[in-house]
Specification:
By secondary structure, this protein is of the alpha+beta class. The chain has 2 domains: 41 residues; 219 residues, Jelly Rolls (Sandwich). Helices cover 20% and strands 34% of the residues. The chain has a 17-stranded mixed β-sheet that branches.
Length: 274
Amino acid sequence: MSEKTKSKSVWGKTSKENTMSKGTKIIAAVLPVLLLLGFAEAQTPVTVKMTKGQAQVTSLTGKVSMVCAGQTEAVNLKTYDFIKPGCEVSTGADGRLEMVLPDRSVVRFAQKTKFKLVQADIGARGSRSVGISMTLGKIWTNVRKSLVGGGDRFEISCQNAVAGVRGTIYRMDVERDQSAVVKVYDGEVSVAGVSRTQQQAPAALGPPQPVAGPTVIEGPKPVSMEQWVYIVRSMQQIQITSDGRALKPRDFTEEEDMDDWVKWNKQRDKQFEQ
């Protein structure tokens, strides 16, 4: 028997072949585990530490800066940072921001957006008082349904309108001329005109109240500011002009609305539902 034959193991393989075989087995055993861990990470629900009175950043891309009371220069935000009421936030040309409020409602902002967190309070019995003021850009909100009755307030406002909800998914886009559009994907949103007095001192929206005129609106004819309150329902949108007038709500479809911004928000919403 030759030396080459003697070097073979009882399995009929050389030592080198045995080593390669063991390595292959280890890789074969470990690879599925790594793939499973990667899949689990991709599907892991988003979790955050809730803090009363402020929001927490849960996702951030690009440049996002914040200026708070007493600060002279903006600071760049990072994931898991907190945003306190009174702070003004701006997203850059490549920036996106997602934050979670104390009631676990989720709010996201697109690139080139400016907003101010006005209030983010949760009462002892679960009532909330949330206010976000939009100066420019796009906001998407997934608002948790309220478990309390009166006294609950969740409002997104811009210069010419305020949208109040208790549990829904909707977005608001604000242009530089302060025209805006509100689109509702689920639930209902009460959208009201903002008077000059309200712009200086915002008040709680509360439930829609009967108003004097306009009683009938034909087609897209706008009504003047301070005269309108609309309930915008699921898959409806309402446009507000730069001078504060509103066009009658109309339906929209997912096909006409779908873009990268909407797709990203829907994907993130699914993660929070898990």
